[in-house]
Write a structure and sequence with these properties.
Structural class: alpha/beta
Number of helices: 9
CATH topology: Metallo-beta-lactamase, Chain A
CATH class: Alpha Beta
Largest sheet: 8 strands, mixed
GO molecular function, one term: hydrolase activity
Number of strands: 19
InterPro entries: ComA-like_MBL, Competence_DNA_uptake, Metallo-B-lactamas, RibonucZ/Hydroxyglut_hydro
Mean pLDDT: 88
Distance between the termini: 44 Å
Keywords: Hydrolase, Signal
Strand order of the largest sheet: 9-8-7-6-5-4-17-18
Pfam families: Lactamase_B
Protein name: Beta-lactamase superfamily II metal-dependent hydrolase
Number of domains: 1
C-alpha cells in the first residue's frame, strides 16, 4: 500500500514539475458557432460565458472575442459527457485553457472525460494532491495525452487574446487546512466589463485577496462554494461590489446550498441572483460595454431548464 501511494505521489510531482428563471429573449443572442483552425471564430466583439448546469458542481466555459476558449471545472464524473457535448454543440474543437480550480470531485470529476475528448492547450491546477480515484483519473488522462500541468496560483496570466485581460488572483498561499482555500480564482476583464470566478474559495482566501490589494470590482461574481455561508464574506462582497451574482448548485442538494445567510447578503445589496438549480445553464454575454443574460433572475418556470 505504501509503495502504491509513493508511486502515485511521484507521478503527481513529475506532472507538476513539468510545470427561479425564464428566458430573456430581449438580451439573449443565439449561439452561432463556426470553427477555424480548431478554435471558434471571433463573434464580432462578443464575449460569452456559459455557466453550465452540472447539478451540484461547477463548470464554466468561456469564448473570447478572438475565438480563444477556456473551461473552468467540469462537474462531477457523471457530468463529464454533458459538459463535452454542450461545448461541442457550440462548434468547439479545442480548449485553449483548462483549469481545475481545486481537486474536489464536483469540480474535476468530469475533467478526464474533457481531456480525452478535446485538444487541450494549457492545463492548470493548484499544487495540492488528494488520494482520490477522481484525482488519479485526471492525472492519468493528462499523462496519457502528454499534457503538462501548470501550477494555478496568484499572478498567473491567461492568454485569451489581446482584447481580454485574465489573471489568477488566488491562491495566494501554499498551505491551507481546507482544500477549498486552494481554489484558483480568476479575474477577467473585457472592455468596461469584468467577471470574477471564485471556485470554492472561502473566507481565508477572500481575506488574502483583499489584503493583497487586488482590484476585485467585478460586474459578475460567481459566488464561491455554491453559495455556502463559508464563502462570500461581507468584506469580500463589498470589495467586489457586483452588479450580478451567479450561483452554481444542484436542485434540492444535500448541503442546503445556497445558504440563506449568503442569499440575504445579496438581497440586502439588491444584487440579482442567477442560479443553475433554478435557471439551468446560464449564458452571460458582454460586448465590452455591458453584460446581458439569456435568462431572468427569480422567475423560475418548471420545464425551462436548459
Amino acid at each position: 500500500m505504501f509503495k502504491k501511494i509513493l508511486i502515485f505521489s511521484l507521478i503527481v510531482t513529475l506532472l507538476f514539475s513539468l510545470a427561479g428563471c425564464s428566458l430573456d429573449t430581449t438580451n439573449f443572442n443565439q449561439v452561432q458557432s463556426e470553427t477555424q483552425n480548431s478554435t471558434v471564430q471571433s463573434k464580432d466583439g462578443i464575449l460569452k460565458v456559459y455557466f453550465i448546469d452540472v447539478g451540484q458542481g461547477d463548470s464554466i466555459f468561456i469564448e473570447s472575442p478572438d475565438g480563444k476558449t477556456m473551461l473552468i471545472d467540469a462537474g462531477v464524473p457523471e457530468m463529464g459527457k454533458k459538459v463535452v457535448d454542450y461545448i461541442k454543440s457550440l462548434g468547439v474543437k479545442k480548449i485553449d485553457i483548462l483549469v481545475g480550480t481545486h481537486p474536489h470531485e464536483d469540480h474535476i470529476g468530469g475533467m478526464d472525460y474533457v481531456i480525452n475528448n478535446f485538444d487541450i492547450g494549457k492545463f492548470y491546477m493548484p499544487k495540492v494532491t488528494t488520494n482520490t480515484k477522481t484525482f488519479e483519473y485526471v492525472l492519468n488522462a493528462a499523462k496519457n495525452k502528454g499534457l503538462k500541468i501548470d501550477v494555478a496560483k496568484a499572478g498567473v496570466s491567461l492568454d485569451l487574446g489581446p482584447e481580454i485581460s485574465a489573471k489568477m488572483i488566488a491562491p495566494n498561499g501554499t498551505k491551507y487546512d481546507d482544500l477549498n482555500e486552494y481554489s484558483a480564482v480568476i479575474k477577467l476583464n473585457y472592455g468596461d466589463t469584468s467577471f470574477l470566478f471564485t471556485g470554492d474559495a472561502e473566507a481565508e482566501s477572500e481575506k488574502e485577496m483583499i489584503n493583497q490589494g487586488y482590484d476585485l470590482k467585478s460586474d459578475v461574481l460567481k459566488i464561491g462554494h455554491h453559495g455556502s455561508y463559508t464563502s462570500t464574506t461581507a468584506a469580500f462582497l463589498d470589495a467586489v461590489d457586483p452588479e450580478y451574482a451567479v450561483i452554481s448548485c444542484g436542485k434540492g442538494n444535500d448541503y442546503g446550498h445556497p445558504h440563506s445567510v449568503t442569499l440575504k447578503k445579496l438581497k440586502a445589496r439588491n444584487i440579482p441572483v442567477y442560479r443553475t438549480d433554478e435557471c439551468g445553464t446560464i449564458v452571460a454575454t458582454s460586448d465590452g460595454h455591458s453584460v446581458s443574460f439569456n435568462v431572468k433572475p427569480g422567475d423560475y418556470v418548471p420545464g425551462q431548464r436548459n
